[in-house]
Amino acid sequence: MEPLVAPSLLSADFGNLSKDIEMINRSEADWLHLDIMDGVFVPNISFGFPVLKHVARLSCKPLDVHLMIVNPEKFIPEVKAIGAYVMNVHYEACTHLHRVVQQIREAGMKPAVTINPATPILMLKDILPEVYMVLVMGVNPGFGGQKFIEHTIDKVCELRELIQLSHSDALIEVDGGVNLDTGKRLIDAGADILVAGNAVFSAPVPEEMIHALKSL
Ligand code: DX5
Ligand code: ZN
Question: Which is the catalytic residue, given 20, 30, 35, 192?
Protein backbone atom coordinates (compact mmCIF):
# COMPACT_ATOMS: atom_id res chain seq x y z
CA MET A 1 0.00 0.00 0.00
CA GLU A 2 1.40 3.43 -0.87
CA PRO A 3 2.06 5.65 2.15
CA LEU A 4 -0.10 8.60 3.05
CA VAL A 5 1.84 11.87 3.04
CA ALA A 6 1.10 14.82 5.33
CA PRO A 7 3.20 17.94 4.62
CA SER A 8 3.82 19.98 7.77
CA LEU A 9 2.91 23.65 7.46
CA LEU A 10 5.60 24.52 10.03
CA SER A 11 8.21 24.78 7.24
CA ALA A 12 5.98 26.83 4.92
CA ASP A 13 6.45 30.53 4.17
CA PHE A 14 4.57 32.20 7.03
CA GLY A 15 4.60 35.45 5.05
CA ASN A 16 2.55 33.83 2.30
CA LEU A 17 0.70 30.87 3.80
CA SER A 18 -2.09 30.85 1.25
CA LYS A 19 0.38 30.21 -1.60
CA ASP A 20 1.81 27.15 0.18
CA ILE A 21 -1.62 25.84 1.18
CA GLU A 22 -2.75 26.11 -2.46
CA MET A 23 0.36 24.17 -3.52
CA ILE A 24 -0.56 21.41 -1.02
CA ASN A 25 -4.17 21.46 -2.28
CA ARG A 26 -2.94 20.86 -5.84
CA SER A 27 -0.45 18.17 -4.79
CA GLU A 28 -0.91 14.47 -4.08
CA ALA A 29 -0.69 15.12 -0.32
CA ASP A 30 -3.26 13.18 1.68
CA TRP A 31 -3.45 15.35 4.80
CA LEU A 32 -2.22 18.74 5.97
CA HIS A 33 -0.20 18.44 9.22
CA LEU A 34 -0.56 21.39 11.64
CA ASP A 35 1.83 21.82 14.59
CA ILE A 36 0.59 23.75 17.60
CA MET A 37 3.21 24.61 20.27
CA ASP A 38 2.82 26.40 23.58
CA GLY A 39 6.38 27.25 24.68
CA VAL A 40 5.82 25.03 27.76
CA PHE A 41 5.58 21.43 26.56
CA VAL A 42 8.13 22.29 23.85
CA PRO A 43 10.67 25.14 23.76
CA ASN A 44 8.98 26.96 20.86
CA ILE A 45 5.69 28.65 19.93
CA SER A 46 4.17 28.19 16.48
CA PHE A 47 0.66 29.43 15.69
CA GLY A 48 -2.70 29.33 17.44
CA PHE A 49 -6.39 29.11 16.62
CA PRO A 50 -6.87 32.58 15.09
CA VAL A 51 -4.36 31.64 12.37
CA LEU A 52 -5.57 28.04 12.09
CA LYS A 53 -9.12 29.18 11.41
CA HIS A 54 -7.92 30.79 8.17
CA VAL A 55 -5.61 27.89 7.30
CA ALA A 56 -8.52 25.47 7.69
CA ARG A 57 -10.72 27.54 5.39
CA LEU A 58 -8.06 27.54 2.66
CA SER A 59 -7.14 23.85 2.89
CA CYS A 60 -9.05 21.19 1.01
CA LYS A 61 -7.02 18.37 2.60
CA PRO A 62 -8.09 16.69 5.86
CA LEU A 63 -6.36 18.35 8.83
CA ASP A 64 -3.96 16.33 10.98
CA VAL A 65 -3.56 18.52 14.08
CA HIS A 66 -0.53 17.84 16.33
CA LEU A 67 -0.79 19.52 19.72
CA MET A 68 2.57 19.99 21.44
CA ILE A 69 0.98 21.62 24.46
CA VAL A 70 0.23 20.84 28.08
CA ASN A 71 -3.41 20.03 28.93
CA PRO A 72 -4.44 19.49 25.30
CA GLU A 73 -7.93 18.38 26.44
CA LYS A 74 -8.71 22.05 27.15
CA PHE A 75 -8.69 22.76 23.42
CA ILE A 76 -10.82 19.89 22.08
CA PRO A 77 -13.68 22.31 21.17
CA GLU A 78 -11.30 24.67 19.32
CA VAL A 79 -9.67 21.82 17.38
CA LYS A 80 -13.11 20.48 16.50
CA ALA A 81 -14.25 23.96 15.44
CA ILE A 82 -11.54 24.22 12.76
CA GLY A 83 -12.81 20.93 11.32
CA ALA A 84 -9.84 18.71 12.25
CA TYR A 85 -9.88 15.12 11.04
CA VAL A 86 -7.20 13.77 13.42
CA MET A 87 -6.33 15.25 16.83
CA ASN A 88 -2.89 14.15 18.09
CA VAL A 89 -2.10 14.56 21.79
CA HIS A 90 1.18 13.65 23.45
CA TYR A 91 1.38 10.65 25.76
CA GLU A 92 3.76 12.75 27.88
CA ALA A 93 1.25 15.63 28.20
CA CYS A 94 -1.81 13.67 29.37
CA THR A 95 -2.15 12.33 32.91
CA HIS A 96 -5.56 10.84 32.06
CA LEU A 97 -4.83 9.79 28.51
CA HIS A 98 -7.70 7.30 28.27
CA ARG A 99 -10.23 9.98 29.17
CA VAL A 100 -8.74 12.47 26.68
CA VAL A 101 -8.88 9.88 23.88
CA GLN A 102 -12.57 9.22 24.65
CA GLN A 103 -13.30 12.96 24.69
CA ILE A 104 -11.67 13.43 21.27
CA ARG A 105 -13.73 10.56 19.84
CA GLU A 106 -16.94 11.89 21.41
CA ALA A 107 -16.21 15.27 19.80
CA GLY A 108 -16.26 13.52 16.40
CA MET A 109 -12.53 13.45 15.61
CA LYS A 110 -10.05 10.59 15.18
CA PRO A 111 -7.93 10.29 18.35
CA ALA A 112 -4.19 9.82 17.97
CA VAL A 113 -1.46 9.49 20.58
CA THR A 114 2.02 10.88 19.95
CA ILE A 115 5.20 9.64 21.64
CA ASN A 116 8.50 11.41 22.12
CA PRO A 117 11.79 9.71 21.21
CA ALA A 118 12.50 8.73 24.85
CA THR A 119 9.10 7.12 25.50
CA PRO A 120 9.13 3.32 25.08
CA ILE A 121 6.57 1.79 22.70
CA LEU A 122 5.39 -0.56 25.45
CA MET A 123 3.79 2.38 27.31
CA LEU A 124 1.12 2.39 24.57
CA LYS A 125 -0.01 -1.20 25.16
CA ASP A 126 -3.21 -0.39 27.05
CA ILE A 127 -4.29 2.57 24.92
CA LEU A 128 -3.69 0.94 21.51
CA PRO A 129 -7.20 -0.55 21.12
CA GLU A 130 -8.68 2.93 21.70
CA VAL A 131 -6.75 4.98 19.16
CA TYR A 132 -7.05 5.59 15.43
CA MET A 133 -3.33 6.29 15.06
CA VAL A 134 0.01 6.47 16.87
CA LEU A 135 2.35 9.30 15.91
CA VAL A 136 5.98 8.34 16.54
CA MET A 137 8.31 11.34 16.77
CA GLY A 138 11.52 10.97 14.79
CA VAL A 139 12.99 14.04 16.55
CA ASN A 140 12.42 15.83 19.85
CA PRO A 141 9.37 17.97 19.09
CA GLY A 142 9.52 21.74 18.77
CA PHE A 143 11.36 22.55 15.55
CA GLY A 144 11.39 21.64 11.89
CA GLY A 145 14.52 20.59 10.02
CA GLN A 146 16.13 18.48 12.77
CA LYS A 147 18.21 15.36 12.25
CA PHE A 148 16.32 12.06 12.27
CA ILE A 149 16.91 9.85 15.35
CA GLU A 150 17.80 6.42 13.93
CA HIS A 151 16.28 4.48 16.83
CA THR A 152 12.85 5.56 15.46
CA ILE A 153 13.10 2.79 12.84
CA ASP A 154 13.32 0.12 15.59
CA LYS A 155 10.42 1.76 17.42
CA VAL A 156 8.22 1.58 14.32
CA CYS A 157 9.04 -2.16 13.93
CA GLU A 158 8.25 -2.73 17.59
CA LEU A 159 4.98 -0.78 17.33
CA ARG A 160 3.92 -2.74 14.22
CA GLU A 161 4.39 -5.99 16.21
CA LEU A 162 2.52 -4.64 19.22
CA ILE A 163 -0.39 -3.51 17.02
CA GLN A 164 -0.64 -7.01 15.55
CA LEU A 165 -0.45 -8.68 18.96
CA SER A 166 -3.15 -6.35 20.35
CA HIS A 167 -5.50 -6.99 17.38
CA SER A 168 -5.59 -3.21 16.98
CA ASP A 169 -5.98 -1.49 13.62
CA ALA A 170 -4.13 1.68 14.66
CA LEU A 171 -2.23 3.44 11.90
CA ILE A 172 1.44 4.43 12.36
CA GLU A 173 2.50 7.97 11.48
CA VAL A 174 6.08 9.29 11.78
CA ASP A 175 6.96 12.97 12.20
CA GLY A 176 10.38 14.63 12.25
CA GLY A 177 13.42 14.15 10.04
CA VAL A 178 11.46 12.41 7.28
CA ASN A 179 13.02 12.56 3.81
CA LEU A 180 13.29 10.13 0.88
CA ASP A 181 15.94 8.03 2.65
CA THR A 182 14.41 7.85 6.15
CA GLY A 183 10.90 7.72 4.65
CA LYS A 184 11.70 4.57 2.64
CA ARG A 185 13.15 2.83 5.69
CA LEU A 186 10.17 3.88 7.84
CA ILE A 187 7.71 2.46 5.31
CA ASP A 188 9.69 -0.80 5.19
CA ALA A 189 9.54 -0.89 9.01
CA GLY A 190 5.74 -0.57 8.94
CA ALA A 191 4.83 3.14 8.90
CA ASP A 192 1.57 4.11 7.14
CA ILE A 193 1.82 7.91 7.11
CA LEU A 194 4.82 10.21 6.66
CA VAL A 195 4.85 13.81 7.90
CA ALA A 196 7.41 15.98 6.13
CA GLY A 197 8.17 19.65 6.64
CA ASN A 198 11.69 20.59 5.63
CA ALA A 199 11.98 17.85 2.98
CA VAL A 200 8.92 19.23 1.17
CA PHE A 201 9.40 22.97 1.56
CA SER A 202 13.15 23.06 0.90
CA ALA A 203 12.76 20.98 -2.27
CA PRO A 204 13.18 22.89 -5.56
CA VAL A 205 9.67 21.75 -6.54
CA PRO A 206 7.71 20.86 -3.38
CA GLU A 207 4.89 19.10 -5.28
CA GLU A 208 7.44 16.77 -6.86
CA MET A 209 8.85 15.90 -3.42
CA ILE A 210 5.32 15.07 -2.23
CA HIS A 211 4.92 12.84 -5.30
CA ALA A 212 8.30 11.18 -4.59
CA LEU A 213 7.34 10.48 -0.95
CA LYS A 214 4.01 9.01 -2.10
CA SER A 215 5.89 6.73 -4.50
CA LEU A 216 8.20 5.20 -1.84
C1 DX5 B 1 8.31 19.04 15.01
C2 DX5 B 1 6.97 18.99 14.33
C3 DX5 B 1 7.04 18.49 12.94
C4 DX5 B 1 7.93 19.29 12.03
C5 DX5 B 1 8.64 18.29 11.21
O6 DX5 B 1 8.18 19.25 16.34
O7 DX5 B 1 6.04 18.20 15.04
O8 DX5 B 1 5.75 18.29 12.37
O9 DX5 B 1 7.27 20.19 11.18
O10 DX5 B 1 9.59 18.94 10.47
P11 DX5 B 1 10.70 18.20 9.61
O12 DX5 B 1 9.97 17.32 8.62
O13 DX5 B 1 11.39 19.34 8.98
O14 DX5 B 1 11.55 17.41 10.55
ZN1 ZN C 1 4.14 17.54 13.96
Answer: 35
Which helix (H) or strand (E) segment holds residue 97: the answer is helix 97-106
**Which range marks the domain in which residue 135 is found?**
4-214
Residue 53's CATH number: 3.20.20.70
Q: pLDDT tens, 37-89?
A: 999 999 999 999 999 999 999 999 999 999 999 999 999 999 999 999 999 99
Distance in Å from the first CA to the final CA of the chain: 10
Number of domains in the chain: 1
Active site residue 154: no
**Any ligand 1 atom below 6 A from CB of 178:** yes
Say what the pTM is: 0.98
Contact 173, 153 (CB under 8 A): no
